[in-house]
Design a protein that fits this description.
The protein contains 20 helices and 27 strands. By secondary structure, the protein is of the alpha/beta class. It is elongated and about 85 Å long.
């Protein structure tokens, strides 16, 4: 049903009729979609001293953050919890008050803690997303007026530059300011956040300076080393405002005013470079604001029904439609609004990332459905052409919920704050299953082959460790793998596995499996069967094949195939025949039969069941055994991207030239 009127249509669906099958079978999202969870430093770390710790005794709840989730001391165990959710990304914030507790004094231990956090995430194949400001300020900066004074921005930029310099080589995704409209309105209109004031004049100043700070941060970081390749963006909370009675002009007027103040002015500022602060009469040009985001982060939770007499205190229940269900926070669950949030930010023409979405639900009786509905809306929006790159659930675990204290529970993990025990909720299991069904498969690299035609350089060294373009070919392969959104790799090292000792590649969880003796390509896979996931991408360790994995994996899953082989029709040799998307004949050696019209390009998607059906002890060839046996069942993915085989000195030289010329 819809509640229609002169403003945007307020859609309400009958969710009982929605089919969620595609969420669980891996068909709803592209394979390279970013699956994440999010936290904020003050809400989980514990032991902080900042503007919030000073404000907490006079907050709505009166509760103090104290130890919070004690994450500062439980980081290693909490990283295991993140990994168990099968996510590919983790969004967290840097606590400025820890890093610079006094003006100009840097806490190197705290800096190292965050640097170590990034390293540990990357070792687990989880990509970090860093938020530079998430509501908290050092006391010394708060006492200077924080964002009330434009002259203070320089200190925050100095902090951002410092941490970017430390982490820029390992962190690709950066959020400048989290929810500037919430910071301004809750701190200076409603008085629910520090400094707890009610001043429209200060709200205008703070809002203007938040946008100035964002623009300066973006331009500063972009000018630094690695800045041009890092993704930096603003995170905007979209809180929809709908007129309670859509026929009532006063209700429509109030909704429109709130929408402009809370949403539109901020989005328009990013688009035009001119910002009209809430309640201001005119817009102001901000240097560097236009085009100051590589993506837009969307935090979405609900909609509010507007009347001229709507409550301005958080503890008063907001109005809801008769058929809507209240969350523990008392606002309604309204997943349909996420679609409208996407439409609101789409004029920016930026990639969209859902940087927060979750629900206060201590009993976990609403959260599973909340997860399903919002992911369904996101998948639907992608199908309709919106460029949505990822989804971060709020939150990893129950935590200190700002003015609400510990009363509102948003976590996929329940936290017992007396014992600090974490327990995975059913909603967490659901989210983990959905993420697992969609994420890029494990990559398996046959890296143990020796190169007899390469002479002395590979007489005792696997070809995959031969340096080309300044680093081992294996490193080039893993760089491409990571760019494709694959963060778990199983490297089959052959019987020379000790030569891989010490090999490291940040950002991918690497597992090495050594063979007791030469087993051939098939024997190597059988030897590693206990490490194989149910679906994996199979690569050759001496080939560089820079194809787009997303359509390959999508085709494999859509066809419910057991094995999908990439085939090129533009090669100087042919070793197979294909028709109607299927492999008909394969011959690795010998004369080329008439009718052969393709060449195996070296990248396949394989279901583990194939290995289990054909595997055997001893030495055997994957290509000679599996391909002929499954010929008419193997699906063919046509892609004529040039691939590079370094099997001979001439081909190795060609690959060297390619890397030198391309700068890879």
């Amino acid at each position: 049903m819809t509640v229609s009127g002169p403003m945007a249509v307020e859609e309400h669906r009958n969710w009982e009729d929605v089919d969620y099958t595609s969420l669980l079978n891996g068909q709803a999202f592209p394979p390279d979609f970013m699956w994440g969870v999010a936290t904020a430093s003050h809400q989980i770390e514990g032991g902080n001293t900042n503007n919030w710790t000073r404000f907490e005794p006079r907050s709505k709840s009166g509760q103090e953050s104290g130890d919070a989730c004690d994450h500062w001391n439980r980081k290693d165990a909490d990283l295991e919890l993140i990994q168990d959710l099968n996510v590919t990304h983790y969004r967290f914030s840097l606590e400025w008050s820890r890093i610079e507790p006094e003006m100009g004094t840097w806490n190197e231990d705290a800096i190292e803690w965050y640097s170590e956090l990034v390293d540990q995430l990357l070792e687990k194949g989880i990509q970090p997303m860093v938020t530079l400001h998430h509501f908290t300020n050092p006391l010394w900066w708060e006492d200077m007026g924080a964002f009330e004074n434009e002259s203070n921005i320089v200190y925050w930029i100095r902090f951002c530059s410092k941490m970017f310099e430390v982490l820029r080589d390992r962190v690709e995704w950066w959020c400048t300011i989290n929810e500037p409209a919430v910071y301004a309105s809750m701190g200076y209109v409603l008085g629910e956040f520090p400094p707890g004031e009610r001043s429209f004049k200060k709200t205008r100043k703070v809002s203007l300076n938040l946008m100035r700070a964002h623009a300066r941060c973006y331009r500063t970081l972009k000018s630094m080393e690695h800045g041009d390749s890092r993704k930096i963006g603003l995170v905007k909370n979209i809180n929809l405002f709908d007129p309670y009675r859509r026929w009532n002009p006063l209700h429509r007027f109030q909704a429109n005013v709130l929408d402009k103040m809370f949403n539109r002015c901020w989005i328009d500022g990013l688009k035009t470079g001119r910002f009209k602060p809430p309640s201001a009469l005119r817009s102001i040009s901000i240097d560097g604001l236009k085009g100051s985001s590589d993506f837009i982060g969307v935090n979405y939770y609900t909609h509010l029904l507007a009347t001229p007499f709507m409550p301005t205190k958080v503890e008063i229940d907001p109005l809801i439609r008769p058929w809507e269900e209240r969350t523990d926070f008392r606002y309604p669950m309204y997943a349909e609004g996420l679609k409208r949030a996407f439409e609101m930010v789409s004029p920016l023409n930026l990639p969209i990332i859902v940087t927060e979405n979750g629900v206060a639900d201590n009993d976990d009786d609403m959260r599973p459905e909340h997860v399903r509905r919002h992911l369904h809306i996101t998948a639907e929006a992608i199908q309709h052409g919106h460029d949505i790159r990822g989804f971060f659930h709020w939150s990893l675990m129950d935590n200190f919920e700002w003015a609400e204290g510990y009363e509102q529970c948003f976590g996929l993990y329940h936290v017992d704050f007396e014992t600090q025990q974490r327990t995975l909720r059913e909603s967490g299991k659901l989210y983990a299953n959905i993420a697992q069904s969609h994420r890029m498969p494990q990559v398996v690299i046959l890296a143990g082959g020796l190169g007899t035609r390469l002479g002395e350089m590979t007489k005792h060294q696997p070809k995959s460790l031969v340096e080309v373009g300044g680093k081992p070919i294996l490193s080039h392969i893993l760089e491409w793998v990571k760019r494709q959104g694959c963060y778990r790799a199983l490297v089959l090292t052959g019987h020379h596995g000790d030569q891989f000792d010490g090999f490291h590649f940040p950002g991918i969880e690497l597992t090495f499996v050594k063979e007791p003796e030469q087993l051939g390509t098939g024997g190597a896979l059988w030897n590693a069967r206990d490490h194989l996931e149910d679906e994996f991408i199979l690569l050759w360790g001496d080939d560089y094949h820079p194809i787009d994995y997303t359509p390959l994996v999508h085709n494999h899953r859509e066809a419910s195939s057991r094995l999908t082989m990439t085939v090129t029709t533009e090669h100087d040799e042919m070793n197979l025949q294909h028709e109607a998307g299927r492999l008909i004949h394969y011959a690795k050696t010998g004369d080329i039969p008439k009718g052969f019209n393709g060449y195996e390009a070296g990248t396949s998607v394989v279901n583990k069941s194939v290995v289990m059906d054909f595997g055997k002890e001893g030495t055997w060839s994957w290509e000679k055994t599996v391909y002929p046996a499954l010929s008419t069942e193997i699906h063919v993915h046509l892609d004529s991207t040039k691939f590079w085989d370094m099997g001979t000195p001439e081909r190795l030289e060609q690959l060297e030239n390619f890397f030198n010329e391309s700068g890879l």
